[in-house]
Write a structure and sequence with these properties.
Layout: E1 5-14, E2 22-27, E3 49-51, H1 53-60, E4 67-71, H2 79-93, E5 96-100, H3 105-108, H4 112-118, E6 123-126, E7 147-150, E8 166-170, E9 176-180
Parallel strand pairs: 2-4, 4-5, 5-6
Antiparallel strand pairs: 1-2, 1-3, 6-7, 8-9
Helix pairs in contact: 2-4
């Protein structure tokens, strides 16, 4: 399987994209076109930053990280790279794995390459974002149609309650980024 991934961005340490301290990896490229998507800059299939999974961990993993959260873009559109990333996280770094996808689990499990990824996933959150069903129960998902699939016993649904959590990150490039499942209203001058 291919071991390179087109990456939009990486947050080395976050506490609002799943349980504990997590490295968050945003894949580049998505064709779901969900209205009001939280990450519209990830939709283009243009090459942004190409990484091998090992490079991601060597360059961005912080000491004390509990796991990785994979989002996008759409991770399963780069399934071969996703497989290698998840396998590396599990076997080389003993990290937990959470994956967000706009596809539905029942469709993904029909594809042998997608199914092979599930061996290394602790939690899968599936389904397209639907603005009319915006999450209001404080679970770490965008909308209530999105479902949690727990493939291991490492986490339970209660671990994904993120009441009023969001993070503001000021990058080395000076760009301000917001992450999490609750938007913070920032007045732009």
């Amino acid at each position: 399987m291919s071991s390179v991934i087109n990456i939009h961005s990486i947050i080395p340490s976050s506490r609002v994209n799943g349980p504990g301290s997590r490295m968050v990896i945003f894949f580049q490229g998505c064709n779901h076109n969900c209205p009001c998507c939280f990450n519209p800059d990830t939709h283009s299939f243009d090459k942004t930053d190409i990484y091998t999974p090992e490079d991601i961990f060597k360059r961005h993993l912080r000491q004390g990280a509990e796991g990785i959260t994979v989002s996008g873009g759409e991770p399963f559109l780069q399934v071969k790279g996703l497989y290698t990333l998840l396998k590396t996280a599990r076997y080389s770094y003993n990290l937990t794995t959470v994956v967000y996808t706009g596809f539905e689990y029942n469709n993904l499990k029909k594809d042998i390459d997608c199914r092979s990824c599930f061996e290394f996933v602790d939690v899968l959150i599936d389904g397209r974002y639907e603005e009319s069903k915006k999450e209001n129960t404080l679970l770490a998902r965008g909308s209530t149609n999105q479902r949690f699939y727990f493939f291991t016993s490492r986490y339970m649904q209660k671990d994904f309650y993120m009441p009023a959590k969001a993070e503001i990150i000021i990058g080395k490039d000076g760009i301000i980024r917001e992450t999490g499942f609750n938007r913070i209203a920032i007045k732009q001058e």
